[in-house]
Structures are given as structure tokens and as C-alpha cells.
Amino acid sequence: MYVHFVKRLIDFIIVFCVLMVIWPILLVISIWLYFANKGAGIFFTQERPGKCGKIFRVIKFKTMTDERNEDGILLPDEKRLTKLGKFIRSTSIDELPQLINVLKGDMSLIGPRPLLPQYLPLYSEEQARRHEVRPGITGWAQVNGRNAISWTKKFELDVWYVDHCSFLLDMEILFMTIKKVFIREGISSDTSVTMEVFTENN
After folding, report:
1. How far is CA 94 from the centre of its chain?
2. Residues 6 or more apart from 93 whose CB is under 8 A from it?
3. What pTM was computed for the model?
4. How many CB atoms lie within 10 A of CB 60?
5. Which residues contact 26 (CB under 8 A, 6 or more apart)?
6. Confidence of residue 190 (pLDDT cuts 50, 70, 90)
7. Using alpha carbons only, what angle is made at residue 78 by residues 72 and 80, rounded to the nearest 5 degrees?
8. Where in 37-167 does DSSP place strands (E)?
9. What would you report as the CA-atom Rg of the chain, rounded to the nearest whole angstrom?
10. Can you tell me the distance from the alpha carbon of 123 to that of 125, in angstroms, rounded to the nearest whole number?
11. Side-chain-side CA neighbours of residue 43 (13 Å)
């Protein structure tokens, strides 16, 4: 009952109320990013698999420029990440536009993070179970290591969440997320400003 109906209703009510309150803040951030990103745009959209693997476009604030080298190739992420972008990413502000995805029903507030479509064929049968629920803005893996843990561990945590999803667990994850945002923990992996590319050997 909770997973199939109540969770979606709670998501919609909370997100609608939050957006009514924070839209002026989102507007200010958008204007700020317009100049900081040097014409690269304000929002970053990308196809991601949702519940049952259905593809949707996730929305995030853009934290990088589109600067390229002399051959027209994009510079590495760490060189395109702006100072403002680094702050917005470290405080998870870049995730706020995904509230629109939640309002539309593409995502939930709590659930496994939506990853890239090209990873779909790489999952084991057990790992693919992460798509049995809507993906979330935050989730069990995010509050237990986020980008600082291995892919294998992340998928184990995602599947554990699918099997144990409940209102109380979602509330626990929500409060743990707030704590993580304030201490800015687990933003990067050991070798990247975000997270390494997933391969079958990760």
C-alpha cells in the first residue's frame, strides 16, 4: 500500500509545497549560474532509466562550463567545474530541479539514484532489481557513502532498500540526507570529482 500509492501521494504533496516556497531561491540560483557557466546554460538534462527501466529526462542545475580544447574536445570535468558549481554540488543544490521530476512522477524523493541508460545491459539480475521502484533524489546508498563507495556496494544498498521500503525507512533516509548535506560528506569518489564510470568489473 505504501510503496504503490501512499509514497507517491506524499511525494507530490511535499514537493508541491516546497516548490511554492523556494521558487524565488531557484530563480536567483538560475541567474547566478547563467553568468558563472559562461553561456553553457543553467540546466543539465540527461536520459535516465526510471521504474521498470522506463527512460525519462532528469533535470539538474548545470555546474560545469562547456569549455573545450583546441581540438574541440570537452576539457576534463575537474577543469570545467566552476567555483560556484563546486559549491552547488557540495551542498547538493544541483539536485533541486529534480523536484520537478518528482512532481511529474518520474522520480520519488527517496529511492535508488537514476543512473545512465548504457549501464542497463551491465547489471546482474539482482542489481537490476533497483528499478522495481521509482528512482530518488536521495536514497539508502547516498546516506551510506554516496560517491565514496564502490558500485558493488551501492547496488547492494539499492536492492536492500527495494526489499525494505517503508515510511519509517524513508523518514530515516530523509533526516540522514539533511545531515549529510550539512557536513558535505561523500560528494566525490577517491579518484574523481563525481563517480567513476560503471563497468561490469566494478
Report:
1. 9
2. 29, 61, 87
3. 0.83
4. 18
5. 96, 97
6. very low
7. 45
8. 43-49, 55-61, 108-110, 136-138
9. 17
10. 6
11. 12
Q: Is the distance from CB of 19 to CB of 103 less than 8 angstroms?
A: yes
Residue type, 144: N
Classify 107 as helix, strand or coil: coil
Of the candidates 101, 124, 125, the residue with the CA atom closest to the CA atom of residue 49: 101
CB 63 within 8 A of CB 86: yes
Q: At what angle do helices 167-183 and 7-36 cross, to 10 degrees?
A: 20
Cβ–Cβ < 8 Å for 57, 48:
yes
Residue pair 200/119 in contact (Cβ under 8 Å)? The answer is: no
Q: Positive or negative, the Cα torsion across 9, 53, 125, 188?
A: negative
pLDDT tens digits, one per residue of 114-152 = 999 999 999 999 999 999 999 999 999 999 987 678 899
Angle of the 83-90 helix axis to the 7-36 helix axis, nearest 10: 160
DSSP string of 133-202, one letter each residue: S--EEE-TTGGGTGGGS-HHHHHHHHHHHHHH--HHHHHHHHHHHHHHHHHT-S-S-SSSSS-PPP-TT-
Distance CA 95, CA 80 (A): 18
DSSP state of 74: B
Count of alpha carbons within 13 Å of 65, Cβ hemisphere only? 18
